[in-house]
Structures are given as structure tokens and as C-alpha cells.
Amino acid sequence: VETCPPPDARRGDGLQESLNQLPNKNLDVDGQMGPGTRAALRALQEKHGLPKTGEPTLATVTGIREQLAAG
To answer: What is the Cα–Cα distance from 11 to 45, expressed in whole angstroms?
Structure first.
């Protein structure tokens, strides 16, 4: 069973800022989980072989962190 994502992932603005550090991302940092943010999450989920939910799950947030750490 997957646990809740860390608190910073539940806030759309922190999540958007993190996604914007990845290649080819240019999201408006407005704190809203809108269609652009969800599409970026689904693309990242697909890349990492995760279910494409568009939600900031723990596995998705971990994938973002790993990708950022890898540069």
C-alpha cells in the first residue's frame, strides 16, 4: 500500500517548481493541480513505469527526486 506523498508534494507550487527543473517543463507555478501539472506528472510516471494517474504519489515524487539528483 502506498503511503501519502511528503507534505511538499501535496502543495502544487512546490511540485511545479520541482517539475520545472526537469527538461522540457515550463509550468506556471500557481499552486494548482491543473491539466498542465497533471500531464507533466503522467509523462514522468510513464517514463518511470508507474501507473499514469497524474497524481503526486510517493513513487512519483521519488521519481522526480531521483531524476533531479541524476541531473
So the answer is: 18
